[in-house]
Amino acid sequence: MCLAVPMKVTKITGVQGEPDDFFLPPLATVEAEGVVQQVRLDIVDRFPAEGDYVIVHAGFAIHTLSPEDARKSLELFQEMARDAGEE
Amino acid sequence: MKTDRVLLDHGSGGLATRELVREVFLSRLSNPSLSRLEDSAVLDMPGGRIAYTTDSYVVDPVFFPGGDIGSLAVHGTINDLAMQGARPLALSMGLILEEGLGMEELDRIARSIARACGEAGVDVVAADTKVVPRGKADKIFINTSGIGIVAEGVDLGSHLASPGDVVVVSGFIGDHGTAILMSREGLTFDVDIHSDSAPLHTLVETVLSACPKGAVRLFRDPTRGGLATVLNEVAQASGVHIEIDEEAVPVRDGVMSVCELLGLEPMYLANEGKCVVVADGKYASGVLEALKGHVLGRDAAVIGRIKGLKGDEKPIVTMKTSVGGSRVVSILSGEPLPRIC
Amino acid sequence: MKGSNLYRNPEVVQALVKKIRGVANRPMRFMEVCGTHTMSIFRYGIKGLLPREISLISGPGCPVCVTPAAQIDQMIALSLRGGVTVATFGDLVRVPGSRSSLAEARAMGAGLQVVYSPADALEMAMKDGSKTVVFLGIGFETTTPSVAATILQAARNRVRNFCVFSSHKLMPPALHALFSDSGPRVDGLLCPGHVSTIIGARAYVPVAQAYGLPCVVAGFEPVDILQGIYMLARQVAEGRNDVENAYARAVTWQGNRRARKVTARVFEPVPARWRGLGDVDASGLKIKEEFREFDARERFSLKETEAEEPSGCKCGQVIKGMALPTSCPLFSRSCTPSRPVGPCMVSGEGTCAAYYKYGR
To answer: How many domains in chain A?
Structure first.
């Protein structure tokens, strides 16, 4: 399930800590395109906050994007689309 | 019923069987033929060609969003008849029950069968129940046979598609397969997807009456194996190249999202209330209008064309992708399984 | 406009194709290393959009396809044991071992459950103590951290009936194995998306430098893939062999350190055998001694066996673009999609399987 779409974090349960310090693995409720899922946060690079986006693989978040990052990458894309249109 | 579970006794043919048949089935499915409880139903048949089909239903889970094994068993067989342009006349049903099946569940299924029959206007005129020991069946298996009458001049077949014909689909693809998968795996995606299980005989009739005889070549319902498999079967049988446009194939957003998440393609998932129609290109708008005018065909769309084969090209189905590329759509090999890598 | 639709915009796709045409001044052959890239390229019909000068070859990035038949046999044997339920990703179910597959084993009564996450497998074990759940650990660096996290969770919760059969592999060592002997017949690498999320774009620098190969990390949508191909073609035209990242929304230069840390806590690199490539040093992952109770190989005393692979499999060469499928002595004789020998035929979209099905 290499899902390409970054999913938006709507809720976090549990807290972050060192890899094997927590007993209840923290979870994030995420949604994208109408699909809502629960994903594990054990291995994500930066612990997300509500409103962040995460890339998900096999039920675990593997990368966090801030809305700013998401916006920037969207801008980059739109720039690419504009360049494309101009050629 | 005196017990709350199906017991081996209920299959023995004696008093318990009679109690089961009367209380659970006859109370809901009664019609003159069935109520007689003779060894066979004797029917007055109109003259003409008889369409005759059988199908077995082993769906797991037994209850799913949008239906259950009972309604599926009625719709599926009516649809097999409808695909040959037949007007369904009667159904028979053989039920194999697993010892221990809850009576309440069985009752629910019986009610669902009755409702489906009532709505479709087709009766179950003959039925049989057997009970097998626990573990020898998965809750309930149903076999449904059906007979129908094919009107004169209606000649449909998968071998009749020819270059210039248009390929139309009656609505959204992949709903049933997705609903079942989500139900079976207990997936908790918060998106509302349910089976499209429905009887298509009146839809077929609407299309046939909207076109001159011979204009419609075939109907096929894309059940197991999905749209991709049915198109491949038609291409093989007719010896043609079917070219479809990915953007034109109607798929609900929710189904698309779930399929993306699981690495599945809607083209390979089952549909239980949809059909593919191939017709003479000249009547494309007529067919589309007829479909859209019917409640089960509101989301119909033209998805492709039939082309001839060049040289020693083999029958094939190709698809223009949403980004303008082209790919071959092969037949499904094995169950669609979600991918990780 | 839906999020992913942006990355499938046909106008942008066409414009990227035009840009590629502009820099593809000679024949260029790129290898897409990741199985998901192979699938995406096939699914969107991307090959047909590219100018003639550009050809694409699928590399060893399908973790299921490179799993040796002998290991599949061990997985099948495990699934047939009484009291064992094997939990696996869907990808493995139909892959053939030397005689059979997990699907066939299930038909013979094997306990098999398809899961979407290793966490689901642990949950199964925790819910039903009567069976031992063996999770089949396949996948590259994207998947291993989640398996490691699951083993840590099992350890914390002292779960006695859960273990992992690790067949995990590492990507960079495989790339070295591919290119270190007889020079690449490939002009650049389209590097995996999510493996790179974990290992970082910088992981490809040794490969780019040692073999003079341009490397571009790309995402899985059509626009991502074409952008990646454009950047590769541009590098070749400019005579560069740099590592570039075209998937910045998911990949950073340094990658996900936390995930790597979690993996290193539980796994250690060992030599591994790859279907088609043979033995590659430090390319597999073994569960560390500290967590041996969660190692299926230890728990069931499994030993590496030599499975019979017909000699002559040319996948290693095909993968490198040094041989065509048709030149392999096994192609369409003892190696067909229904009885495949090497990964190029195991994967539905592998080079040999594609040749076989579509003759190209």
So the answer is: 1
Amino acid C114 reads V
Contacts of B325 in chain C (CB under 8 A): 44-49, 222
> H or E segment at B226?
helix B226-238
Tokens 């669902």 — which residue? B112
Q: What do you get for the CA distance between the two ends of chain C, in Å? A: 36
Q: Which domain holds residue C335?
A: 315-358
Length of chain B: 341
Mutate: best of B182, B193, B260, partner A, most A CBs <10 A: B260
Flag whether residue B185 sits within 8 Å of chain A, measured between CB atoms.
no
**Residue C2: predicted pLDDT:** 44
Residue scoring higher pLDDT (C26 or B36): C26
Taking only the tens place, the pLDDT of each residue in C266-312 is: 999 999 998 878 889 999 999 999 999 999 999 998 887 766 666 78
Question: Closest to B340 (Cβ–Cβ): which among C10, C47, C139?
Answer: C139
Q: Which residue segment(s) compose the domain that B280 sits in?
A: 166-328
* Strand ranges inside chain C, DSSP E: 28-32, 54-58, 84-88, 112-114, 132-137, 162-166, 188-191, 215-217, 243-245, 267-274, 278-287
pLDDT-wise least confident of B42-46, B265-269, C194-198, C355-359: C355-359
Using a CB–CB cutoff of 8 Å, tell me whether B323 touches chain A: no
Cβ–Cβ gap A42/C7 under 8 Å: no
Secondary structure (DSSP) of chain A:
----S-EEEEEEES---STTT-SS--EEEEEETTEEEEEE-TT-SS---TT-EEEEETTEEEEEE-HHHHHHHHHHHHHHHHHHHH-
A70 touching C (Cβ < 8 Å)? yes
Judge if B174 and B253 occupy the same domain.
yes
Whether C40 and C222 have beta carbons less than 8 Å apart is answered as yes
Tell me the pLDDT band of C74, cut-offs 50, 70 and 90: very high
Q: What total of structural domains would you count in chain B?
A: 2
Residue B337: inside a domain, yes or no? no
C72 and C217 assigned to the same domain: yes
Shortest CB distance from B322 goes to which of C10, C91, C94? C10
Mean pLDDT across C185-195: 93
**How confident is the model over B104-136, as pLDDT tens digits?**
999 999 999 999 999 999 999 999 999 999 999
